[in-house]
Amino acid sequence: MTFALFFLLGLFVVPSLFGLAMIYHVFIRGKHSPADKSNRINHLRLVWFALTREEEFVDQFPWLKKDEWENMK
User: Fold this and answer.
1) CA 37 vs CA 45, 68, 72: distances in Å
2) How far apart are CA 8 and CA 20, in angstroms?
3) Rounded to whole angstroms, how far apart are CA atoms 12 and 26?
4) What pLDDT score does 26 carry?
5) What is the pLDDT of residues 51-61, one digit of tens each?
6) In three state form, how does the secondary structure of 5-70 look?
7) For residue 22, which of 1, 51, 2, 61 has the smallest C-alpha distance?
8) Cis before residue 34, ω within 30 degrees of 0?
């Protein structure tokens, strides 16, 4: 019974919380200039671009080239 509860928690609740966090950060959270309220569509595009084309960000963020263990050292 306990295993089934944790399985359902991981299967449904954790992804749902991640989705709610994405909705909050894209649509609800206050924006600062120059990314104000009128720029929500571009913010959503940026999130999608970051999720689907992570190789484009490696030159901007050099820590993406390293393994996570190397980043911790």
Assistant:
1) 14, 35, 36
2) 18
3) 22
4) 81
5) 888 888 888 88
6) HHHHHHHHHHHHHHHHHHHHHHHHCCCCCCCCHHHHHHHHHHHHHHHHCHHHHCCCCHHHHCCHHH
7) 51
8) yes
Where b means 16+ CB within 10 Å and e means fewer, 55-64 reads eeeeeeeeee
Indicate the pTM of the whole model: 0.55
Report the alpha-carbon distance of residue 40 to residue 36 in Å, rounded.
Answer: 8
Token representation of residue 23: 């909705």
Distances (CA, A) of 12 to 8, 30, 61: 6, 28, 32
For the stretch 2-43, pLDDT in tens is 888 888 888 888 889 988 998 888 888 877 777 676 777 888
